[in-house]
Amino acid sequence: MARVVVRYIPKTEERTRLVKIMGKRLREAREIAGFNQSEAARRLGYTNSSKLAKIEAGSDTNSIPLWLIIRAARLYHVSIDFLFGESSDWEMSAQAISERETQKWLFEQWEQSRMADMNSVRKLQDRINAVTEFMKYFFESAVDLDIAMKRFIELNPEFNELRGSNTLLSRVNRIAELTSKSRTKLEIYAELANGINRFKIDSKPQPRLFSD
């Protein structure tokens, strides 16, 4: 006979109480660690502070991501037991404080480097767009030159008998060909630059602390 395993699911009252305790502890840990809500939310992986604000206020009783507890414990340098309300030990040792300050400094340096890179990409994109716009008119002029050259030959059949006529014609065709290729490459580079500016990491669905 197969054994039936019954999974314990916290009752609504118990779940609400635990969420409020965890929200309170998350707020306390954040304040002692010296983070404002916006900065903490960004470091924890949120795009803004609204979700973290609801969790800290204990108003979001439906779900708490498991990854948030782990990240918060690491970021604030407190124990997971403390965040769950099972311990009052902050674990704020001198080493933990030093590590937190180092981590904060590294994050700030990374953020500055990232912003500098994005500014460089934007400047490059502006230059590519300017050159692409110029190449547009250059390409149109090259096409007009090619058309005019062919029309000139039609009106002057003896042109082909002139010395250097074939060389001149091949040069005109070459200009049109190279201009077309250059314009295509610049458009590709412009799309790549635009793609970098629009780049965004999509977060994967995270496991929840409670599930019915």
Automatic annotation (TrEMBL):
An annotated Gene Ontology molecular function: DNA binding
Protein name: DNA-binding XRE family transcriptional regulator
Pfam family, one: HTH_31
Assigned keywords, A-Z: DNA-binding
Gene3D superfamilies, per the entry: lambda repressor-like DNA-binding domains
Organism: Nitrosomonas ureae
Highest taxon of source: Bacteria
Domain HTH cro/C1-type: 26-83
Record CDD domains: HTH_XRE
Keyword Membrane: no
Keyword DNA-binding found: yes
